[in-house]
Amino acid sequence: MSLWTSQDAAAATGGRATRDFAITGISIDTRTIQPGDLFVALQAARDGHDFVAQALEKGAAAALVSRIPEGVAPDAPLLTVPDVLPALEALGRAGRARMQGKVIAITGSVGKTSTKEMARIALAGQGRIHAAEASYNNHWGVPLTLARMPADTDFAIIEIGMNHPGEIEPLARLARPHVAMITTVAAAHLEAFGAIEGIAREKGAIFRGLLQPGTAVLPEDLGVTPLLRDYADEAGAIVIGFGEHGMARPIKAETGDGVTRVCARVLGETVDFTLATAGSHFVMNAVGVLAALSAAGADLAEAARHLSDWHPPLGRGAVEDLGGIRLIDDAYNSNPTSLAAGLATLARLTGGRRVAILGDMLELGPDEIALHRGMADDPSMAAVDLVHTAGPRMRALHEALPETRRGLHAATAAELAERVGELVATGDIVLVKGSKSSKVSTVVDALRRTRQSTLPGERTA
């Protein structure tokens, strides 16, 4: 069954098709393109027009272009438009308009992608589900996700992110969700926003895209919660708070063997579920997800049951046994809030020496050194036996720690990775965390090279 015909795509974008075609998918990357895809020649680090010939050779049904690329015949299957990105947005808008199911949009400073995956997996068996791929949450990721959406989708989960002011509202208006969820508001991208209130205002703008009557699901226990509620009220939304004092809240959570068993109260119903993680922040997001899914018309008990099939994405807090140590790989991103959550997970696990290996937290603005130094006073830090650090910002934390907890410090994560044999010992529980650009994942790679990994769900002989 085709996703778009040439006639439908031309009508949606205002473009001109050189010939009739039908596409079964949409791609922006020739490395992963599949036969039948529409190749979208976006201009980013490289001009996608340079790869159109290659895409067609690999079986693309057509290409979305603003000009006929060099080496491509004029009668090749092309959809020509004045500008490719606005045309992709138009195709996404048309994809959203023809879909009659429910749309759930998710944003937040921490946990967007893992929460989106929770929602996708929890909806198993409740119809045709469509969700954003990976972290496709920006100015091209959201329209791409909408353009890829089959018309008969029952539930769509759209992830929406930002780096600068003014990004979320237009994407939310494009997605037109029935339910919008904010996971949390934290000190991330402070360089662009100046203060946590600026971030809250940007996150709250997601509610401006809600269809009426829409539902706003937001964290109940933050200092900026009143500001988020103002945005939800302005949008005329039904408001559901999740958190310790929310309409959706955990009643009891018990951690053991790397899993957490939860009893929660969600919109007046009591449900039990299990998460394959020791992270309490995942528990809270799961409660919020259940509230969002219920508000979208999903079966709450079924959604809670399927949460046990979810695992944290790679680099985002998964716990694994790794050749004599227990590793918490949380190296994908970091800010003070998510680092505090990672340290809390580390503190909660028992059985050996607790070691944290930390890379710089980036985009924190002029107070970045103080924010790094301040992590020495995090309540969970008292349970950590040894802290290794990498990067110029993390030096502030290294110097603030008592000598008994102060491990190695290196200028870069790569230098720390070269000394991997000095970082941990058999029996340790190890957290590795830092902003992606700090490249602290190189330490994870070094640990995996030197020890045999047993990932969650795998069996050993």
TrEMBL record:
GO terms (BP aspect): cell division; cell wall organization; peptidoglycan biosynthetic process; regulation of cell shape
Species whose genome carries this gene: Paracoccus kondratievae
Enzyme nomenclature, EC number: 6.3.2.10
Pathway annotation: Cell wall biogenesis; peptidoglycan biosynthesis
Any one GO CC term of the record: cytoplasm
Task of the protein: Involved in cell wall formation. Catalyzes the final step in the synthesis of UDP-N-acetylmuramoyl-pentapeptide, the precursor of murein.
Gene Ontology MF: a single term: UDP-N-acetylmuramoyl-tripeptide-D-alanyl-D-alanine ligase activity
Domain Mur ligase C-terminal residue range list: 322-435
Positions annotated to bind ATP: G108, S109, V110, G111, K112, T113, S114
Broad EC category: ligase
Domain Mur ligase N-terminal catalytic: 23-91
Pfam families (UniProt xref): Mur_ligase, Mur_ligase_C, Mur_ligase_M
Protein name listed in UniProt: UDP-N-acetylmuramoyl-tripeptide--D-alanyl-D-alanine ligase
Stored InterPro entries: Mur-like_cat_sf (IPR036565), Mur_ligase_C (IPR004101), Mur_ligase_C_dom_sf (IPR036615), Mur_ligase_cen (IPR013221), Mur_ligase_N (IPR000713), MurCDEF_CellWall_CoF430Synth (IPR051046), MurE/MurF_N (IPR035911), UDP-N-AcMur_synth (IPR005863)
Reactions catalysed: D-alanyl-D-alanine + UDP-N-acetyl-alpha-D-muramoyl-L-alanyl-gamma-D-glutamyl-meso-2,6-diaminopimelate + ATP = UDP-N-acetyl-alpha-D-muramoyl-L-alanyl-gamma-D-glutamyl-meso-2,6-diaminopimeloyl-D-alanyl-D-alanine + ADP + phosphate + H(+)
Residue ranges of coiled coil: none
Keyword terms: ATP-binding, Cell cycle, Cell division, Cell shape, Cell wall biogenesis/degradation, Cytoplasm, Ligase, Nucleotide-binding, Peptidoglycan synthesis
Recorded family membership: Belongs to the MurCDEF family. MurF subfamily.
Residue ranges constituting the Mur ligase central domain according to the UniProt record: 106-292
Location in or out of the cell: Cytoplasm
PANTHER family registered for this protein in UniProt: UDP-N-ACETYLMURAMOYL-TRIPEPTIDE--D-ALANYL-D-ALANINE LIGASE
